[in-house]
Here is the input.
Amino acid sequence: MKWSEVRKIYPDQFVKLKVLSSHIENSQEFIEDIAIIKPIPDKLATKELLKSKGDELVFHTVNEDIVLEVRQDVGLRRFDYHENQT
Here is the structure.
């Protein structure tokens, strides 16, 4: 389903969705095709977002497009405590 269709079906509300296809350009992910999981009441949107995993999102239909900023993982450096032993 396209985001424009979702916006017509669920105007001015949050929806939980699963990303089916997307592409990345210039550190931005453009979501192209989605499946709706369920509409979300405003007061539960943050809670649902925190419970989302993998390719699930909570997004408000007031947005014309779904575009996400792609960030590189800044992992922790592993320190081997035994590397300095002789």
User: Anything to note?
Assistant: The longest helix spans residues 3-9. Helices lie at 3-9, 45-51. Residues 3-69 form one domain. The longest strand covers residues 28-40.
